[in-house]
């Protein structure tokens, strides 16, 4: 499914955007018949509230949508997208006093409403209401972000039976082929021979072989390396999750899905960078040869890791992947992972917490988050907690019994392997738990748009 705008210059109907405080002036401007209709139907201009404007013959000559109060707009992202489902098929254009940011938010939210996941069930057809891209909005950039987001959602929403390590590799290779990127992959026991022992240890119990994939695109410009956690299903291993803990574990490859969506944005937009994408892909399951509590692994980097919880497996596979990423210079290194429940406790499902030691990167990310309507929250690499991840019997502990700051200690663990001054780690959720405007319940990208829009400032492009 491909998001789209209506063709520029196509005949269109007006969608008047009105605030509660501007409602009376809007009524006067629309004329007596429209004003009377809005009055009779009790229109209050609440966020996303919609009224179609009829003509004398019962046809539709336009519509009015509420922008809501300033407080409501702060609380509801893509509020105007609530109205899209109520619009009849046809081409629409925005009218009203909208800032550049509000026009961009409306355009992106409209594109997001076009998403449907119909692989297993014929879903409700998306409406035929199409938007003319508003003046001043970069249609190409909006479409690149929406298409990347749709890829991420599709990958996360696909159940593990059809999205194991092999299928994730197929999606990875298909994306690379679309843009002419170069690829490589290491699979199964070859992981040991080629220096990825922690990826192998986590994935070896599954009959679906573990692997690590690499994509390279671009010949000039700053070097950007993206690493995404690809745990295609996580039972917890021998530290088995309860059934309630497994219900959403098809999304445990959300980091991989999100970096692939971001990579698509970068390549489609033709950003002048040298892009490298690394995804370790495994299933964490139970078998006689499964990773055991108290095993000690020697990582690609040479650091030893005591396994105190086989359910803290994502940081293990990322450790090898980040060590590989760091074996050649780059200007920015990013990891994305559905890593800890502690991050959800800290900021909930809607915010994407991230870690970086670079203030310039953080500033660019924050600006990108605002411009991309992709909320993020900076968390600290708190050095005082470093001793917590050092168990004594090995260099590192994958699940310290500290009892606090689980997202921070996981990020500190990864930083030991990244060892890069411009390293950014995202601890995302990758799932929308309840229906929201432009975001159906299910898989969702987080942090990708913030990064995509922040890259030019981060890299001096």
UniProtKB/TrEMBL annotation:
Domain of life: Bacteria
InterPro entries: Leucine_aapep/pepB, Macro_dom-like, Peptidase_M17_C, Peptidase_M17_N_1
GO molecular function, one term: aminopeptidase activity
Cytosol aminopeptidase domain mapped to chain residues: 151-451
Pfam families per record: Peptidase_M17, Peptidase_M17_N_1
Positions of the M17 aminopeptidase N-terminal domain: 14-134
Keywords: Aminopeptidase, Hydrolase, Manganese, Protease
Gene3D superfamilies the record matches: Leucine Aminopeptidase, subunit E, domain 1 (3.40.220.10), Zn peptidases (3.40.630.10)
Family (UniProt): Belongs to the peptidase M17 family.
Protein name per Swiss-Prot or TrEMBL: Leucyl aminopeptidase family protein
Lineage, top ranks: Bacteria, Pseudomonadati, Pseudomonadota, Alphaproteobacteria, Rhodobacterales
């Amino acid at each position: 499914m491909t998001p789209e705008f209506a063709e520029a210059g196509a005949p269109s109907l007006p969608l008047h955007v009105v605030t509660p405080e501007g409602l009376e002036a809007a009524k006067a401007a629309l004329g007596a018949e429209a004003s009377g209709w809005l009055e009779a139907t009790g229109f209050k201009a609440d966020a996303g509230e919609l009224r179609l404007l009829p003509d004398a013959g019962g046809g539709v000559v336009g519509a009015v949508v509420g922008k809501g109060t300033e407080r409501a707009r702060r609380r509801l992202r893509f509020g105007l997208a609530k109205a899209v489902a109520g619009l009849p098929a046809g081409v629409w254009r925005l009218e009203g006093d909208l800032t550049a940011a509000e026009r961009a938010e409306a355009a992106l939210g409209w594109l997001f409403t076009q998403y449907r996941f119909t692989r297993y069930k014929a879903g409700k057809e998306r409406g035929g209401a199409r938007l003319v891209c508003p003046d001043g909005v970069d249609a190409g950039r909006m479409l690149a972000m929406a298409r990347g987001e749709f890829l991420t959602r599709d990958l996360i929403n696909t159940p593990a039976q059809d999205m194991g390590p092999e299928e994730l590799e197929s999606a990875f290779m298909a994306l690379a082929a679309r843009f002419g990127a170069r690829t490589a992959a290491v699979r199964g026991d070859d992981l040991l021979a080629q220096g990825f022992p922690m990826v192998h240890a986590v994935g070896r119990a599954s009959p679906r072989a573990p692997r690590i994939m690499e994509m390279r695109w671009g010949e000039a410009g700053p070097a950007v390396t993206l690493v995404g956690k690809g745990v295609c299903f996580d039972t917890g291993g021998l530290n088995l999750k309860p059934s309630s803990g497994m219900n959403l574990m098809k999304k445990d490859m959300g980091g991989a899905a999100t970096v692939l969506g971001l990579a698509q944005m970068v390549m489609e937009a033709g950003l002048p960078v040298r892009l490298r994408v690394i995804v370790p892909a495994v299933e964490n399951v139970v078998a006689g040869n499964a990773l055991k509590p108290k095993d000690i692994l020697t990582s690609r980097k040479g650091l030893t890791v005591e396994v105190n919880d086989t359910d803290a497996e994502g940081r293990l596979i990322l450790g090898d992947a980040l060590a590989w990423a760091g074996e050649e210079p780059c200007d920015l290194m990013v990891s994305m992972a559905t890593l800890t429940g502690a991050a959800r406790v800290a900021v909930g499902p809607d915010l994407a917490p991230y870690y970086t030691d670079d203030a310039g990167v953080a500033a660019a990310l924050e600006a990108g988050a605002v411009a991309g309507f992709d909320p993020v929250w900076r968390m600290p690499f708190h050095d005082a907690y470093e001793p917590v991840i050092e168990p004594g019997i090995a260099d590192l502990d994958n699940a310290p019994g500290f009892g606090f700051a689980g997202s921070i200690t996981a990020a500190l663990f990864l930083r030991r392997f990244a060892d890069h001054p411009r390293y950014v780690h995202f601890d995302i959720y990758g799932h929308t738990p309840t229906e929201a405007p432009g975001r159906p319940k299910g898989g969702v990208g987080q942090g990708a748009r913030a990064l995509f829009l922040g890259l030019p400032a981060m890299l001096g492009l």
